[in-house]
Amino acid sequence: MKNFLLILIINLCLIGSYIFNSNAQENQMSYTALFEEICQIVEKNFYNTPFIQKNFSSIKERYALKVKTISTQTDFSIIVNSMLKELKASHTYYLSSNDYEYYHLASIFSYLPSIQQAFNNKDIMYPTIGIIAETIDDHIFIASVLSGSNAEKAGLLCGDEIIAVNGSPYEPINSLKENIGKQVAFSIKRNPNANTQTFLVTPTLINPKTEMLEAERSSIRVIEIQGRKIGYIHLYSYAGQEYQDELISAFSQGALKDADALIMDLRYGLGGADPSYLNIFNPNIPVISSKDSSGNISVYDSQWRKPAVFLVNKTSRSGKEILVFGAKKYKLATIIGERTAGAVLGARLFPLSNGDFLYLAGKSCLIDGVDLEGIGVAPDIEVPMDIRYCQGKDIQLERAINFFLETLSNEQS
């Protein structure tokens, strides 16, 4: 009887081992196939054909060996993105459904049938509390809190280090997706030597474009200081006419109409701006005055004719930094902050067979004949900022406010 039990246990262990090994082999085969799929897209569509012909074969070979050693989606993402970094190009990375950019980019490219099919022709929604996080030296920090978001309402601040969410390591999507409408506990450090604090935040499900537009609207305010009215608006995304329309509405007939100066915050979020958006600074567009039958006069001016500042940093990219380049070159606004990203290549989103995406640069771009890729735009006034443990203090915004106080006073005198 003992021998029978021993044989049975051994057989069960062997069966378990076989199942485990079979699953591991199946995962390995799928990762190998997915890696090859990605490489084929790169070889066919990457903008720098000479680089691919000269270098990619050896790069691919090195990383193909690494793919054979992995067993998790996280490891696969790390390896593929490490390979893509060797292409030394912006707008080039691999995205899984645990990356918030997966949903942001899908919402921008949702007009493409292939992207619609990836979401079963349904609205693109994702779980969010309204933060943009950044990993610095293996620590995760909140780089930006979207205006009006649940994160802002809960008291989270830029500079907070995220230690855990519900006791587990923070993941942009996985930490939230099972808790829509429920409070989750964010363990936060506001000082490297302080104890953790707990903030309860409720994730919501929303379309990323809608989230960015609502945050833009919520950010609009007038900062009244020393008798001056300084308007502020944060364009988290500029990938669509609706964001420009909101800006124009705010200063032509909304809260910013009577401001003495305007701060346009172009830090964090998405680029996508059309160069023609700079036309709001064109002084040669007429002002419309109208009077109704009761004698009421209304004025509509679609242009900003007062001083303006663009707030920028290393996350100001793509269409945003093209606007920054034009604003600086043609002296339409003063640029304050840090050098922009230097990320201006034209890119396309490729759906992959497993539902993930490859975002790949397919075109080079010159801005007025200038190549900004890898270089970016230097600000007129440089203000370096380290977000770590800054406790919500924004020295770049403060510098922009002080700049206006100085310049407006000089104009008055």
Question: What does this 3D model show about the protein?
Answer:
This protein is α/β, with parallel strands linked by helices and 413 residues long. Helices cover 36% and strands 21% of the residues. The chain is built from ten helices and 18 strands. It has helices spanning 2-45, 49-67, 73-85, 100-108, 113-118, 150-154, 208-219, 241-252, 319-329, 395-412; strands spanning 93-95, 126-128, 131-136, 139-145, 161-165, 184-189, 197-201, 204-206, 221-225, 228-234, 261-265, 288-291, 297-300, 308-312, 334-337, 346-351, 357-363, 381-382. The chain has a six-stranded mixed beta sheet, with helices on both faces. Strands 1-17-16 form a three-stranded antiparallel beta sheet, sandwiched between helices. Strands 5-6-7 form a three-stranded antiparallel beta sheet. Strand 12 (288-291) and strand 13 form a beta hairpin. Residues 1-28 have low confidence and may be disordered.
